[in-house]
Write a structure and sequence with these properties.
Elements lengths: L3 E12 L6 E12 L3 E5 L6 H8 L7 E6 L2 E2 L5 H11 E4 L11 H11 L4 H14 L15 H14 L4 E5 L7 H14 L6 E5 L11 E6 L2 E5 L1 H4 L1
Parallel strand pairs: 3-8, 3-9, 6-7, 7-8
Antiparallel strand pairs: 1-2, 1-4, 4-5, 9-10
Helix pairs in contact: 3-4, 3-5, 4-5
This protein binds adenosine-5'-triphosphate and magnesium ion.
Protein backbone atom coordinates (compact mmCIF):
# COMPACT_ATOMS: atom_id res chain seq x y z
CA UNK A 1 0.00 0.00 0.00
CA UNK A 2 1.48 3.36 -1.04
CA UNK A 3 1.71 5.95 1.74
CA UNK A 4 1.21 9.64 0.92
CA UNK A 5 4.39 11.71 1.13
CA UNK A 6 2.84 15.00 -0.01
CA UNK A 7 -0.83 15.92 0.03
CA UNK A 8 -2.02 19.24 -1.33
CA UNK A 9 -5.63 20.34 -1.19
CA UNK A 10 -7.27 23.32 -2.90
CA UNK A 11 -4.05 25.26 -3.47
CA UNK A 12 -4.52 28.75 -4.92
CA UNK A 13 -1.75 31.24 -5.77
CA UNK A 14 -2.04 34.69 -7.29
CA UNK A 15 0.81 36.94 -8.47
CA UNK A 16 0.90 40.67 -9.16
CA UNK A 17 -1.48 43.55 -8.59
CA UNK A 18 -4.27 45.25 -10.54
CA UNK A 19 -4.13 44.70 -14.31
CA UNK A 20 -1.09 42.44 -13.97
CA UNK A 21 -2.79 40.16 -11.45
CA UNK A 22 -2.64 36.53 -12.60
CA UNK A 23 -3.75 33.32 -11.00
CA UNK A 24 -0.90 30.81 -11.26
CA UNK A 25 -2.62 27.99 -9.34
CA UNK A 26 -6.38 27.39 -9.42
CA UNK A 27 -7.56 24.95 -6.79
CA UNK A 28 -4.80 22.38 -7.21
CA UNK A 29 -4.99 19.13 -5.26
CA UNK A 30 -2.44 16.38 -5.47
CA UNK A 31 -1.22 13.35 -3.62
CA UNK A 32 2.32 12.08 -4.15
CA UNK A 33 3.17 8.79 -2.52
CA UNK A 34 6.32 7.24 -1.15
CA UNK A 35 7.83 4.91 -3.71
CA UNK A 36 6.62 7.08 -6.60
CA UNK A 37 8.53 8.97 -9.25
CA UNK A 38 5.74 11.34 -10.21
CA UNK A 39 6.07 13.63 -13.21
CA UNK A 40 4.19 16.86 -13.85
CA UNK A 41 4.14 17.96 -17.48
CA UNK A 42 2.48 20.93 -19.13
CA UNK A 43 3.03 24.06 -21.21
CA UNK A 44 5.24 26.97 -20.24
CA UNK A 45 3.49 29.32 -17.82
CA UNK A 46 0.99 26.68 -16.67
CA UNK A 47 2.13 26.93 -13.03
CA UNK A 48 4.51 24.00 -12.62
CA UNK A 49 7.36 25.86 -10.89
CA UNK A 50 4.87 27.74 -8.71
CA UNK A 51 3.34 24.43 -7.63
CA UNK A 52 6.73 22.88 -6.77
CA UNK A 53 7.61 25.99 -4.73
CA UNK A 54 4.37 25.74 -2.75
CA UNK A 55 4.82 21.99 -2.12
CA UNK A 56 8.38 22.36 -0.89
CA UNK A 57 7.90 25.20 1.58
CA UNK A 58 9.48 27.89 -0.59
CA UNK A 59 6.36 29.89 -1.58
CA UNK A 60 3.33 30.41 0.66
CA UNK A 61 0.00 29.75 -1.10
CA UNK A 62 -2.91 32.22 -0.81
CA UNK A 63 -5.18 29.38 0.23
CA UNK A 64 -5.22 25.62 0.45
CA UNK A 65 -3.10 23.25 2.49
CA UNK A 66 0.04 21.21 1.94
CA UNK A 67 0.93 18.39 4.24
CA UNK A 68 4.11 16.43 4.10
CA UNK A 69 4.09 13.12 5.94
CA UNK A 70 0.88 14.28 7.59
CA UNK A 71 2.24 17.63 8.92
CA UNK A 72 0.75 20.89 7.62
CA UNK A 73 3.90 22.70 6.42
CA UNK A 74 2.30 26.14 6.00
CA UNK A 75 1.41 26.28 9.69
CA UNK A 76 5.10 25.96 10.65
CA UNK A 77 7.00 29.07 11.77
CA UNK A 78 9.91 30.27 9.63
CA UNK A 79 12.58 28.39 11.62
CA UNK A 80 10.60 25.17 11.47
CA UNK A 81 10.03 25.68 7.76
CA UNK A 82 13.77 26.19 7.12
CA UNK A 83 14.44 23.04 9.11
CA UNK A 84 11.82 21.15 7.11
CA UNK A 85 13.37 22.24 3.80
CA UNK A 86 16.87 21.30 4.93
CA UNK A 87 16.04 17.90 6.37
CA UNK A 88 13.23 16.58 4.18
CA UNK A 89 13.61 18.15 0.75
CA UNK A 90 16.19 18.08 -2.02
CA UNK A 91 15.32 20.69 -4.65
CA UNK A 92 16.79 21.18 -8.13
CA UNK A 93 15.86 24.68 -9.26
CA UNK A 94 15.03 25.31 -12.92
CA UNK A 95 17.71 28.02 -12.92
CA UNK A 96 20.14 26.03 -10.71
CA UNK A 97 20.67 28.66 -7.91
CA UNK A 98 24.33 27.80 -7.40
CA UNK A 99 26.45 29.91 -5.04
CA UNK A 100 28.79 31.81 -7.40
CA UNK A 101 31.64 32.30 -4.91
CA UNK A 102 31.90 28.65 -3.92
CA UNK A 103 33.56 25.83 -5.86
CA UNK A 104 31.35 23.11 -7.30
CA UNK A 105 32.31 20.73 -4.48
CA UNK A 106 31.50 23.38 -1.88
CA UNK A 107 28.14 24.02 -3.56
CA UNK A 108 27.25 20.34 -3.24
CA UNK A 109 28.59 20.21 0.33
CA UNK A 110 26.58 23.17 1.67
CA UNK A 111 23.41 21.26 2.68
CA UNK A 112 25.56 18.50 4.21
CA UNK A 113 27.49 21.02 6.29
CA UNK A 114 24.23 22.71 7.35
CA UNK A 115 23.15 19.26 8.50
CA UNK A 116 26.28 19.22 10.67
CA UNK A 117 28.44 16.82 8.67
CA UNK A 118 32.08 17.76 9.20
CA UNK A 119 33.79 19.69 6.39
CA UNK A 120 36.12 16.92 5.22
CA UNK A 121 33.40 14.27 5.01
CA UNK A 122 31.01 16.69 3.30
CA UNK A 123 33.57 17.54 0.60
CA UNK A 124 34.35 13.84 0.13
CA UNK A 125 30.64 13.05 -0.30
CA UNK A 126 30.23 16.05 -2.62
CA UNK A 127 33.08 14.84 -4.86
CA UNK A 128 31.51 11.36 -4.93
CA UNK A 129 28.19 12.79 -6.17
CA UNK A 130 29.94 15.07 -8.67
CA UNK A 131 31.57 11.94 -10.04
CA UNK A 132 28.14 10.27 -10.34
CA UNK A 133 26.78 13.14 -12.46
CA UNK A 134 29.88 13.01 -14.66
CA UNK A 135 31.78 15.98 -13.24
CA UNK A 136 34.88 14.29 -11.96
CA UNK A 137 37.72 16.79 -12.13
CA UNK A 138 35.43 19.85 -11.89
CA UNK A 139 35.29 19.92 -8.08
CA UNK A 140 37.61 22.90 -7.64
CA UNK A 141 36.04 25.17 -10.25
CA UNK A 142 33.52 27.94 -9.55
CA UNK A 143 30.15 27.64 -11.36
CA UNK A 144 31.05 30.45 -13.78
CA UNK A 145 33.70 28.20 -15.34
CA UNK A 146 31.13 25.49 -16.12
CA UNK A 147 28.73 25.10 -19.05
CA UNK A 148 24.97 25.36 -18.44
CA UNK A 149 24.58 21.59 -18.52
CA UNK A 150 27.46 21.15 -16.09
CA UNK A 151 25.91 23.69 -13.72
CA UNK A 152 22.63 21.81 -13.95
CA UNK A 153 24.44 18.62 -12.96
CA UNK A 154 26.01 20.37 -9.94
CA UNK A 155 22.49 21.38 -8.87
CA UNK A 156 21.36 17.75 -9.23
CA UNK A 157 24.38 16.46 -7.28
CA UNK A 158 23.63 18.96 -4.48
CA UNK A 159 20.01 17.83 -4.26
CA UNK A 160 20.74 14.08 -4.21
CA UNK A 161 23.91 14.09 -2.07
CA UNK A 162 21.88 14.35 1.14
CA UNK A 163 19.64 11.42 0.04
CA UNK A 164 16.47 13.42 0.80
CA UNK A 165 13.17 11.71 1.53
CA UNK A 166 11.52 14.02 -0.97
CA UNK A 167 13.41 14.97 -4.11
CA UNK A 168 11.89 17.69 -6.26
CA UNK A 169 13.43 18.50 -9.62
CA UNK A 170 12.28 21.34 -11.90
CA UNK A 171 13.22 20.57 -15.53
CA UNK A 172 16.38 18.73 -14.40
CA UNK A 173 17.44 17.66 -17.89
CA UNK A 174 16.61 20.83 -19.84
CA UNK A 175 20.27 21.69 -20.49
CA UNK A 176 21.53 18.12 -20.90
CA UNK A 177 21.96 15.96 -23.98
CA UNK A 178 19.64 12.93 -24.18
CA UNK A 179 22.14 10.34 -23.05
CA UNK A 180 23.40 12.35 -20.05
CA UNK A 181 19.88 13.30 -18.96
CA UNK A 182 18.61 9.74 -19.20
CA UNK A 183 21.67 8.43 -17.38
CA UNK A 184 21.09 10.78 -14.44
CA UNK A 185 17.36 10.11 -14.18
CA UNK A 186 18.03 6.37 -14.42
CA UNK A 187 20.58 6.67 -11.60
CA UNK A 188 18.10 8.61 -9.46
CA UNK A 189 15.36 6.04 -10.05
CA UNK A 190 17.62 3.09 -9.29
CA UNK A 191 19.55 4.56 -6.37
CA UNK A 192 17.50 7.27 -4.69
CA UNK A 193 13.92 6.06 -5.14
CA UNK A 194 12.77 3.50 -2.61
CA UNK A 195 9.64 2.89 -0.59
CA UNK A 196 10.47 5.61 1.94
CA UNK A 197 11.29 8.26 -0.67
CA UNK A 198 9.22 10.25 -3.13
CA UNK A 199 10.47 11.97 -6.29
CA UNK A 200 8.60 14.75 -8.09
CA UNK A 201 9.83 15.88 -11.49
CA UNK A 202 8.57 18.69 -13.69
CA UNK A 203 9.68 18.15 -17.25
CA UNK A 204 9.08 18.85 -20.94
CA UNK A 205 11.68 16.26 -21.86
CA UNK A 206 9.95 13.33 -23.55
CA UNK A 207 13.26 11.43 -23.55
CA UNK A 208 12.84 10.78 -19.80
CA UNK A 209 9.05 10.16 -19.66
CA UNK A 210 9.50 6.42 -19.60
CA UNK A 211 11.09 6.52 -16.11
CA UNK A 212 7.92 7.98 -14.53
CA UNK A 213 5.80 5.78 -12.33
CA UNK A 214 2.88 8.22 -12.88
CA UNK A 215 2.34 11.40 -14.91
CA UNK A 216 0.06 14.37 -14.17
CA UNK A 217 -0.70 17.17 -16.62
CA UNK A 218 -0.81 20.84 -15.72
CA UNK A 219 -2.65 23.40 -17.84
CA UNK A 220 -3.56 26.99 -17.00
CA UNK A 221 -3.01 26.55 -13.26
CA UNK A 222 -4.97 23.32 -13.02
CA UNK A 223 -3.75 19.79 -12.57
CA UNK A 224 -5.32 16.75 -14.18
CA UNK A 225 -4.56 13.06 -14.12
CA UNK A 226 -3.20 11.57 -17.31
CA UNK A 227 -2.61 8.13 -18.62
CA UNK A 228 1.09 7.57 -18.99
CA UNK A 229 0.62 5.81 -22.31
CA UNK A 230 -1.43 8.77 -23.62
CA UNK A 231 1.59 11.03 -23.01
CA UNK A 232 4.33 8.68 -24.20
N1 LIG B 1 7.17 35.91 -9.07
C1 LIG B 1 6.20 36.05 -9.98
N2 LIG B 1 5.59 37.25 -10.15
C2 LIG B 1 4.57 37.38 -11.05
N3 LIG B 1 4.09 36.40 -11.81
C3 LIG B 1 4.68 35.19 -11.68
C4 LIG B 1 5.76 34.96 -10.77
N4 LIG B 1 6.12 33.66 -10.86
C5 LIG B 1 5.31 33.11 -11.79
N5 LIG B 1 4.44 34.01 -12.29
C6 LIG B 1 3.39 33.76 -13.29
O1 LIG B 1 2.66 32.60 -12.91
C7 LIG B 1 2.40 31.77 -14.02
C8 LIG B 1 2.99 30.39 -13.80
O2 LIG B 1 4.42 30.48 -13.78
P1 LIG B 1 5.37 29.22 -13.54
O3 LIG B 1 6.75 29.73 -13.46
O4 LIG B 1 4.84 28.47 -12.39
O5 LIG B 1 5.12 28.40 -14.89
P2 LIG B 1 5.86 27.07 -15.43
O6 LIG B 1 4.77 26.10 -15.75
O7 LIG B 1 6.90 26.64 -14.46
O8 LIG B 1 6.52 27.58 -16.78
P3 LIG B 1 7.91 27.10 -17.50
O9 LIG B 1 7.60 25.77 -18.12
O10 LIG B 1 8.14 28.16 -18.51
O11 LIG B 1 8.97 27.04 -16.45
C9 LIG B 1 2.97 32.50 -15.24
O12 LIG B 1 1.92 33.22 -15.84
C10 LIG B 1 3.99 33.44 -14.64
O13 LIG B 1 4.14 34.59 -15.42
MG1 LIG C 1 8.95 26.51 -14.55
Amino acid sequence: MLQPAIQATGVVKWFGEGEARTQALRDVSLSANFGEMLYIVGPSGSGKTTLLSVLSGILRPDSGTVSVEGADIWSLNSDQLADFRLHKIGFVFQDYHLFPRLTTAENVAVPLILKRMNWGDAIKQAVHYLDIVGLKGRAELPPVKLSGGEQQRVAIARAIAGQPEILIMDEPTASLDGETGQGIVRFVKQNILNESRCILIVTHDSRIYDFATRILKMADGRLAGAEKREIL
